[in-house]
Specification:
The complex is a heterodimer of chains A (224) and B (403). With 224 residues, chain A is an alpha/beta fold. Chain A has a single domain (3-223), classed as Rossmann fold (3-Layer(aba) Sandwich). Chain A is 33% helix and 27% strand. Chain A has helices at residues 44-51, 74-84, 100-110, 115-128, 144-156, 174-191; strands spanning 3-12, 18-28, 33-38, 59-64, 67-68, 85-88, 162-166, 194-198, 210-215, 218-223. The longest helix of chain A has 18 residues, at 174-191. By secondary structure, chain B is an alpha+beta fold. In chain B, 52% of the residues lie in helices and 20% in strands. In chain B, helix 2 packs antiparallel against helix 12. Chain B is elongated and about 100 Å long. The chains are: A alpha/beta (224), B alpha+beta (403). Chain A binds chain B through residues 49, 52, 54-55, 75, 78-79, 81-83, 87, 89, 93-98, 102, 106-107, 109-110, 112, 138, 154-155, and chain B through 2, 4-5, 8-9, 12-13, 15-17, 303-304, 307-314, 317, 396-398, 401.
Chain lengths: 224, 403
């Protein structure tokens, strides 16, 4: 088991507190490709943010790779995110000043990997996502689909235990969406990458192993 | 903190960011730096001009005056001063408060008169110590053989645009004769040989006759009321005073030009205070400018900062990256600014000094001014870069990415 979520709650403060997650519990096995689905406001993105340590839950626990993360300091979260987790965001989320190659090797540079190694590995990753010829291109010189593939390569460069994707195809045309989802499936099958993806596209179900349905902050069902 | 990653991001942002923004930012930093140096230097130049006027026209660098119980200094030791290394020249004066009168129509009806200081000079010695002989605006300077000739300042002459025209002789000209009644009541008539105009009001209220002429009036020989001394450089006067004393002036008063120029000293302090205040304002403005530049950059990169944090970059690394950018702008600003100052502005002011009432003013750029300006701008860059970067990175990842 790579993730164990125990009674996870998230409440946003204010005059009228909003209970977005109301005690969610589930488990994820290593190598699973999971989709979090539900209507808008169901809490799926909030759940992904808690799992990815981008936000702090109000209560409950998230155990990743056997490690409880609930009491992590900000520094520990940073370190954990850098080494264990990868993210693909809805909009391509690339730095405009970095080429595809530079974007991909940045996490390795942050991890202190020697230059020769991180360039070699980034080139391999570019090959994997089919963008070798785009390595010296800036984001503005690439299509949306290409940018998202660069973001996927960046997310995977540190060989994360889990890859989180927050509606990764929301801003892509159908052809690019299919390319990205096929890439996810390929990574899941070939290297056993654990992937948790938020999506609202019913058609995306065909690529995943399991769907976790959320409604009003609780899990209503699991399965395909 | 990952210095390498911070540098990498800063470098890529500078190299691949908007060229227009980069040029504008560097231009602002350059101007901020030039402003810092220019303000300090121009005030330094004004103070320098005031000081130079006193040194060149009144005091030299060091002045020896008689012991408190004596009227005159005995000149027997003066030759020994000339042998002190670093002493360029000396000039001994007799000083007498005299009543100078001018009766234009020689009819006793419209006599202009006033009390002024008359100094006597050994012409060649005086020319090596003061610049009065170079400030003649009408006629010519004295010759050692002159006995019935006098050179007067424009404030005495009048009609030359002086500040004290109402106290003057009303516009005497070279060739006119004036009557002088010395403090011992001896009266002499002199022909005006020259009129001088310095940029020092005190100097322009003096008149000069030859040493031999004054000795004949006062009935003294080989004495002096004051000895003024020119040294090889300004600012090192104190080191000569002990040597001068050891050469035989044990009881005499020996003072530097700085000690004698009370007004200049307070004026210098005032100018320096203004300079410091303007410099501080300039530094704060530069700091705020950098702050705004980095702040705008951070607002535009809000989402990117969120992404960097999401992929595991520490806040300190992101902050360092922005500080590196700010420091880069400051360094380039300093380099360009110093080039503009040294190769454009300073040569221009050397060729075209400003005509101030206190003298010809050029920029006085010292190593200290450059050092303080460099440090000020760097501190401004560090603070101006740090605060917005710190505030920007405190935002939560989700807020930064999704707003």
């Amino acid at each position: 088991m790579i993730i164990e979520v125990k009674k996870l709650k998230k409440t946003y403060g204010g005059k009228i507190p909003t209970h977005v997650l109301k005690g969610v519990s589930f488990e994820v096995e290593k190598g699973e490709f999971i989709a979090l689905m539900g209507r808008s406001g169901s809490g799926k993105s909030t759940l992904l943010h808690q799992l990815g340590l981008l936000d702090s839950p109000s209560s409950g626990d998230i155990i990743i790779d056997g490690i409880s993360t609930i009491n992590f300091t900000q520094k520990q979260k940073n370190e954990f995110r850098l080494k264990k987790l990868g993210y693909v965001f809805q909009a391509y989320a690339l730095l405009p000043e970095l080429t595809a190659l530079e974007s991909i090797y940045l996490p390795l540079m942050l991890s202190g990997v020697p230059k020769s190694q991180y360039i070699k590995k980034a080139l391999e990753m570019l090959e994997k996502v089919g963008l070798s010829e785009r390595r010296n291109h800036l984001p503005k010189e690439m299509s949306g689909g290409e940018q998202q593939r660069v973001a996927i390569a960046r997310a995977l460069i540190n060989e994360p235990a889990i890859l989180f994707a927050d509606e990764p195809t929301a801003n892509l045309d159908s052809e690019s969406s299919e390319t990205v989802l096929k890439l996810f499936k390929k990574l899941n099958k070939e290297i056993g990458q654990t992937i948790i993806m938020v999506t609202h596209e019913p058609d995306d179900k065909k690529y995943v192993d399991r769907v976790i349905w959320l409604k009003d902050g609780t899990i209503t069902s699991e399965g395909i | 903190m990952n210095i390498k990653a911070a540098f990498f991001l800063a470098y890529k942002t500078i190299v691949r960011g908007s060229k227009g923004t980069l040029i504008m930012t560097i231009l602002i930093m350059t101007l901020a730096y030039v402003n810092l140096i220019f303000i300090s230097s121009i005030f330094g130049g004004i103070v320098e001009a005031i000081n130079e006027q006193y040194i060149d026209n009144l005091y030299g660098n060091i002045v020896i005056t008689p012991a408190s119980d004596k009227i005159y200094i005995e000149n027997k030791q003066t030759s020994s001063i000339n042998h002190i290394p670093g002493i360029v020249a000396i000039s001994a004066h007799y000083i007498n408060d005299a009543l100078i009168s001018y009766d234009e129509y020689k009819d006793g009806n419209n006599i202009q008169q006033g009390k002024w200081k008359i100094k006597s000079v050994n012409v060649e010695d005086e020319k090596r110590v003061t610049a009065i002989s170079d400030s003649i605006i009408s006629g010519e300077y004295l010759d050692d053989k002159d006995r019935d000739k006098i050179v007067i300042g424009k404030e005495i002459a009048g009609g030359q645009g002086g500040d004290l025209d109402y106290l003057s002789l009303g516009g005497v000209l070279v060739g006119d004769t004036i009557d002088v009644k010395f403090s011992n009541n001896i009266k002499r008539t002199y022909t005006i040989k020259g009129i001088f105009s310095t940029k020092n009001n005190q100097a322009d209220q003096m008149a000069f006759i030859t040493r031999k002429e004054m000795e004949s009036i006062l009935g003294v020989h080989n004495l002096s009321s004051e000895i003024i001394i020119k040294t090889i450089e300004k600012g090192q006067e104190e080191q000569y005073i002990e040597s001068i004393r050891q050469s035989g002036f044990y009881d005499e008063e020996i003072r530097t030009w700085e000690q004698l120029t009370g007004f200049t000293s307070s004026a210098s302090k005032s100018f320096m205070m203004i300079s410091i205040i303007l410099g501080a304002i300039g530094t704060i403005v530069a700091g705020i400018t950098i702050f705004i530049i980095i702040f705008v950059s951070i607002v535009n990169k809000r989402r990117q900062i969120g992404i960097l944090k999401a992929i595991g970059m520490e806040e300190s690394t992101i902050i360092l990256s922005f500080i590196m950018q700010a420091v880069f702008y400051a360094i380039i600003g300093i380099l360009l600014g110093i080039s503009i100052i040294l190769f454009v502005i300073r040569p221009f002011f050397v060729d075209n000094p400003l005509d101030f009432p206190v003298g010809w003013v050029s920029l006085k750029i010292t190593f200290d001014i450059i050092k303080i300006s460099n440090i000020s701008l760097m501190i401004a860059a560090l603070i101006g870069g740090f605060i917005p970067a710190f505030r920007g990175t405190r935002e939560s990842i989700l807020d930064a990415i999704w707003g």
